[in-house]
Design brief:
By secondary structure, the protein is α+β, with helices and mostly antiparallel strands. It has 2 domains: 2-98 and 203-357, C8orf32 fold, CATH 3.10.620; 105-195, Sandwich (Immunoglobulin-like). Helices cover 17% and strands 24% of the residues.
């Protein structure tokens, strides 16, 4: 185990190029608010993850309910230049203002069955509310990249604009028969995101939390006592590794379209890779650490898996296997550090191939 073998070097773990975090899936209730963005004291961490409870499928398209229409994410990641940070006081972690997200009905357009709110695209997300008995898919399209989501009817839903600035199409698709869908509503938007890290600092469908969520309250306790950003990330890493075990039964039986609930994961103290990645993203994002949920494939059997990435400008701590680089996105996969994780569901933690990010 990465965690077990690195227990005496844990204070060095964030300096590694690839710091893995492994976990699994579920969905939480949504009622989102907007707090105007506060500039992050220090640009930090990015965490990634993907979908469908780590199965053996090597399909190029995401599992049902996640990801995109089969087109893989472009590999090039431009260095974010627009994000601004204040210098952190020596020996303490300054917690930034909480960044929320919400659906604003007065700003939304659409029809009786689907309403799309694009008023916060400059903050890195689009919001949706649907009221219909039909199955609904929501597509976020930029250039040749399409992310397709399963929609929960009757709830406000938040979706990230992870493809950056540019022209977007937003399509609400209604199930007609079998796997056939027809367009229910469509709108377009030219998007300029004020802070490039915003999509990874706010709640969304895959990282669903509020300022009052149990996981956020716990993360805030760690942040208040942290001596630095790296110390805060280390505390979250230690906590998740020690308190959540891998759920092989759930991994073998997870349903398509599964969405994680981070507070339920903490309560049950077990989960799959999606749950781990969701919980980690919620805890880090809520305290100002840019974090991605990544879905992709892990060697040796191209197992579909979810993990995180975080962004940092700081020097980090090191383990035997991984090093975190300053000024770069670094992998953190807690699933491989979790107790009871079975390699047939999560692979061996080597040769990550990223497909989608949230």
């Amino acid at each position: 185990m990465v965690f077990d073998r690195s227990i005496q070097k844990i204070d060095a773990l964030i300096k590694t190029q690839d710091f893995a975090i492994m976990y699994g899936m579920k969905k939480g209730a949504k009622t989102h608010r907007i707090l105007k963005k506060a500039m992050v004291p220090i640009l930090i961490a990015g965490i990634l993850l993907s979908l469908s409870a780590c199965t053996d499928s090597a399909s190029a398209a995401p599992k049902k309910g996640f990801g995109s229409s089969g087109k893989k994410k472009t590999e090039t990641e431009a260095e974010p230049a627009a994000a601004t940070a204040q210098e952190e006081p020596q020996g303490s972690y300054e917690i930034p203002e909480f960044r929320d997200a919400e659906f604003v009905e007065e700003e939304a357009t659409g029809n009786d069955e689907a309403m799309v709110d694009t008023s916060s695209c400059d903050e890195g997300y689009v919001a949706l509310h649907c009221d219909t008995d039909s199955k609904i898919k929501f597509q976020v399209i930029k250039d040749d990249i399409t992310y397709t989501y399963s929609v929960v009817n009757g709830e406000d839903q938040i979706f990230p604009l992870q493809s950056g600035d540019g022209y977007y199409e937003f399509k609400v698709m209604e199930n007609i028969v079998d796997n056939k869908y027809a367009e229910l509503y469509k709108t377009e938007e030219e998007v300029v995101i004020e802070d490039p890290f915003d999509p990874f600092l706010r709640p969304n469908q895959y990282a669903d939390y509020t300022e009052e969520s149990t996981c956020v309250v716990k993360a805030h306790e760690f942040a208040e006592n942290a001596t630095s950003t790296q110390d805060f990330v280390k505390q979250v890493y230690d906590y998740v590794c020690k308190n959540v075990t891998y759920d092989d039964v759930k991994a073998a039986n997870v349903a398509p379209g599964y969405l994680p609930d981070p507070d339920l994961t903490l309560d049950e103290k077990k989960g799959i890779c999606f749950d781990y990645a969701c919980l980690t993203a919620c805890m880090l994002r809520s305290q100002g650490v840019p974090t991605k949920i990544i879905f992709g494939y892990v060697a040796p059997d191209d197992i579909y898996h979810a993990w995180n990435k975080f962004y940092t400008e700081e020097d980090g701590w090191t383990t035997v296997e991984f090093t975190v680089n300053p000024n770069d996105w670094n992998r953190i996969d807690l699933t491989f550090s979790a107790n009871g994780a079975d390699s047939k569901f999560i692979g061996d933690g080597t040769n990550y191939a990223e497909a989608y990010e949230y």
